[in-house]
């Protein structure tokens, strides 16, 4: 508490007020549109008439059983309401793909692809070009932040590749990029290895095999000193005391989030002792982060202006990890996932369903302006953990829990269930949810199956069909575009 009040100096208050009014403005904007949103059924009928043209897929195109990539959503040239195969990727399997949500450049929509060997390729979508940017590094995970690629390789080194997306012209013959290694000497003490990375607008969070968490600012703008941790997104509370420490917000320098590494435990005799906490999973939104430890506790830090930390409005920003109070809802948290300004927690309990599987429940909080919380309404502030009924029903009544989350969208989510069934919700203004329409969804919904080459399908049968991914297929989303690819 006292840290919070000292943290809230005048500057921060001004920002808080400004940011709150921005949220309020959006809310107003949302409300002025409510009549459109509330009556989804009317809109559907109207829209159906317009958007029901089902594209004919040429007979010569490879079928959706052959590895490749399908794209859906809007580029500057085309809008694909149904996933369409991109020939460039025919036969390819990928380790992963991340679209650039930032687009602070003139190159159109771009994504970074990890091919089956761990090489990085830059996909310029409007130009239909796939060019190598990093080879022979055996990359396993990537994150984009502030125009830079952060790449983790099989040797557990963290590479930073600057400028690819923002400054290297497509006409440049040599697209191969220079890279640097992020200084990991802080991990040397106990020989730690990085196992997961995630990033937000200005922060990078790293989880190691010793279950410790580190953070770094990704913002290189020299005029940004103080604002680099405005929301407390770095989880490093003593920043006001360290203002003079030149290194403290040096971009791409890791600091341990020390407050996450220990906990006080009281034994049966009432003795208190310090034990080390083991963090298992990290997930970043734009300006906030959730982590889960081996004790099934959830810790939150960063921006809470939309309620995305699950805390009430007297905590606009939280600059250090705060444990979410355990209650019936959060008693055992087994997963955390964040998108832009929203969060999801998966919980379990010792109870079993009548099919004798563990009860699994999903809760959402934060910004749900475009339906991205999946709780059935459009609200930009929700700090109470709210059950996502459709997901809970699938998990507990149909024995079909979530297998994979795609959380690289800002205000849209795509999930793959155990069975392969795909559920989507949130912003859909670009058709990025692959529903065949552009209507946003506040309830997780199935999407049509992939269109078959050479088959004329009527809209009724297409909209009635449901996409079920094959075992090696993955679906990934982003701000404007989603894609289906084959996992290497
Ligand atoms: C939406 O439209 C349907 C069908 O036209 C109607 O039955 C329903 O009452 C409407 N709901 C609202 C909230 O206006
Ligand atoms: C990449 O890493 C894997 C697993 O560590 C290893 O088996 C493989 O040989 C590596 N590939 C290259 C090209 O270094
Ligand atoms: C960290 O350890 C690795 C391997 O043990 C070594 O190669 C590297 O030089 C060390 N880095 C620093 C800064 O001590
Ligand atoms: C940021 O830091 C640099 C060097 O430490 C300093 O010259 C500059 O004035 C600072 N900018 C702001 C906005 O504080
Ligand atoms: C935990 O953080 C403290 C600083 O608060 C640090 O001195 C200590 O080394 C850390 N503990 C472990 C086990 O790394
Ligand atoms: C958080 O980050 C996003 C950009 O990723 C920005 O648009 C937003 O205004 C930031 N602030 C708040 C209060 O959400
Ligand atoms: C949205 O739904 C949640 C969960 O049912 C509820 O707690 C919240 O009050 C609703 N918000 C609005 C603005 O209706
Ligand atoms: C297209 O039509 C075929 C044959 O009628 C059917 O098997 C398939 O499921 C349809 N595809 C979709 C996406 O509706
Ligand atoms: C694309 C992706 O992340 N797929 C993962 C889905 O979940 C399974 C099991 O947890 C992983 O093995 C896949 O890699």
Assign the CATH topology. Answer: Methylamine Dehydrogenase, Chain H
Q: Roughly how many Å apart are the termini?
A: 47 Å
Structural class computed from helices and strand pairing: mainly beta
CATH classification class: Mainly Beta
- Average of the residue pLDDT scores: 85
Number of DSSP E strands: 30
Q: What is the CA-based Rg, rounded?
A: 23 Å
* Overall morphology: globular
Low-confidence stretches: 1-8, 10-51
For the biggest β-sheet, the strand order reads 2-1-30-29
Task: Characterize the main sheet.
Answer: 4 strands, antiparallel
Ligand names: 2-acetamido-2-deoxy-beta-D-glucopyranose
CATH H-level superfamily title: Regulator of chromosome condensation 1/beta-lactamase-inhibitor protein II
Count of separate DSSP helical elements: 7
* Secondary structure: helix percent: 10-25%
Task: Please indicate the percent range of residues in DSSP E strands (runs of 2 or more).
Answer: 25-35%
Count of distinct structural domains:
1
In CATH, the architecture is 7 Propeller
Keywords: Membrane, Transmembrane, Transmembrane helix
Protein name: Protein FMP25, mitochondrial
Transmembrane segments: 7-26
GO biological process, one term: mitochondrial respiratory chain complex III assembly
